[in-house]
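Exam prep: given the inputs below (a chain plus zinc ion), describe the expected output before reading on.
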Amino acid sequence: MLLRIILTVVLSAALAGLALWKRALTRSGLITAGVFALIITFTAGVRGFLILAATFVFTLIAGKIKSGLREKREGQVVAKSGPRDHMQMICNILVGVIMLILYEITGRFAFCCAYGCAMAASLADSLASEIGVLSNKTPVDICTGKKITTGLSGGVTALGMGASALGAAIIALIFVLFGGGFRCFVIITVMGFLGALLDSILGSALQGKYRCAVCSIETEKKEHCGRPTVLTRGVARVNNDTVNFINNAFSGVVGMIIFLILKY
Ligand SMILES: [Zn+2]
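Solution:
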């Protein structure tokens, strides 16, 4: 038990240190992520920690690749950019954390697998949006099939889809390095990919999209060119965080049901 606590504190502190160094999180984001890292490492050990760390590091790397290229353009349309805050941490990690608390209480491996599914959805979605905007092709809206502004939620490209599948597979691979087998790998990859796909569908159908009255760009920001924008599509209250939370809950809960049915 003492070893488990020491391991938890050391690994969580190392990850928090990395986030601090890279200025990847706001203060509230850092505190939230720190608490989640403690719970995850305590309940799921090195496996849980490595999955969290990989999600964080690959998102960071993808963001760096993007920033040199299209930061300016995307900054025009996406509501949130820059360091991640506590809402982003909660919407991307909380479902996984709840699964691990259930794993700790019940001892059922299915809940640990469900954590893998939720985190696979997180990384799949992050890579899809960070890498997807680099595509030379104009994204099409996943629901309407029409071309839309690069960076807007709901837009998909082949590159983004590939990055999404890769992200889910990375998490699934780390998961099964500690046991679980090939079937486990496949289910986590598929659930992660489907979560990111749902993210695009909800992003297109529900997420609030606005038009600037001055320069008429389509954006997710409520203000542009110093003036309030006009809601053209979706629901004003639904933003990227809401959609991320729903896709995480979908992958985590459906994954949990599948693994429970398969008697994991
Ligand atoms: Zn404008």
